[in-house]
Amino acid sequence: MHFSRRQFIGLMGAASMAGCARTKDVFQSSKKAVSNIKMPSVGGSGPFTFAAVGDLHILDARSTSIVNRATDMINEMDNVQFTAVLGDLASDGELVELRLAKQSLDRLERPYYCVPGNHDAHIYSEDMFGNYRNEFDETHWREDDTGWLFIGLDTCEGNKSDVTVRNDQIQWLTKVAERTNANRPIAILGHHPFNPNTKAYRVVNADDVLGIFSGHNLKLVASGHYHGNQEETQDGTLFTTTACCSITRNNFDDTTSKGFRLFHIDSDNSITTEYVEVEA
Ligand SMILES: [Fe+2]
Ligand SMILES: [Fe+2]
Question: What are the sequence ranges of the domains in the chain?
Fold first, then answer.
């Protein structure tokens, strides 16, 4: 499914007028400005493309420059339907950092959806992700209006780097899986890696989480946190991590390239990915 910029604006306008109300359980947009708008073009049957960017680690206005370049590049890509932002938008979960991140991400002309990372936790607040939710609404969501089911999974345990996915998320995922047709293609988008052979930081209970979707058509688990490009396929599921899109942090694998990732979904729902470098 392809929408030109003009077509997309028209669809967004029509959807806005429709004023489609959506329950929190069914859909959470990470972008408050569009949170009550039915997204007309997210997912669907292939072919379509979406982008994933993460580990922005915004600290101050200067550090938004690379994110602004990335959003400009994505806006130029007419085939990109939406962008997933895979956590660590901020450096220390400060409201000012998250607001700067949102300002940069709001440059995107098509929808974007966020999940938090450990650096989006504000450790001095009782509600560590209160600042995050103030800017980006809920920390987990699902989008299942169309052919694909996209799951925004909150993998965070406070500001921990090595995490066990929490029971509330496990229970939510179990319900989502129970309601999902076994043939429906599923993508999980989260911060901490599930890659079976990631060089570091694999989610401690990754196999338990993935087991929820055994017997389902889990096509993709895309993550951040490990700042480095990793791609592997196991049992028909593509697992990725991506270089950070930050000028305040380095990659963990000694590479210097910064950027984002594209996922191309073909008409048979097969998926391929490519890394796109952004000038730091
Ligand atoms: Fe990070
Ligand atoms: Fe992280």
Answer: 5-278
CATH class of 5-278: alpha beta
Q: Tell me the CA–centroid distance for residue 200 and ligand 2, in Å.
A: 11
Q: What is the whole-number distance in angstroms between the Cα of residue 225 and the centre of ligand 2? A: 4
Distance in Å, CA 256 to ligand 1 centroid: 15
| pTM of the predicted protein model | 0.86
The per-residue pLDDT for 133 is 98
- Owner of token pair 């052919």: 147
The pLDDT of residue 57: 98
Contact 232, 206 (CB under 8 A): no
Contact 253, 228 (CB under 8 A): yes
- Sheet containing 230-234, strands listed edge to edge, beginning at the edge strand earlier in sequence: 141-143, 149-152, 185-189, 217-222, 237-241, 230-234
Kindly give the distance from the C-alpha atom of residue 171 to the centroid of ligand 1, in angstroms, as a whole number.
Answer: 26
Q: Which ligand lies nearest to the CA atom of residue 55 in the structure?
A: 1
Please tell me the distance between residue 45's alpha carbon and the centre of ligand 2 in angstroms. Answer: 31
Q: How far is the CA of 35 from the centre of ligand 1 (A)?
A: 26
DSSP type of residue 216: S
* pLDDT tens digits, one per residue of 199-253: 999 999 999 999 999 999 999 999 999 999 999 999 999 999 999 999 999 999 9
Nearest ligand to the C-alpha of residue 201? 2
- Calculate how far, in angstroms, residue 103's C-alpha sits from the geometric centre of ligand 1: 19
Q: What is the pLDDT of residue 78?
A: 95
For residue range 15-36, what is the model confidence (pLDDT) as tens digits?
332 222 222 333 334 443 333 2
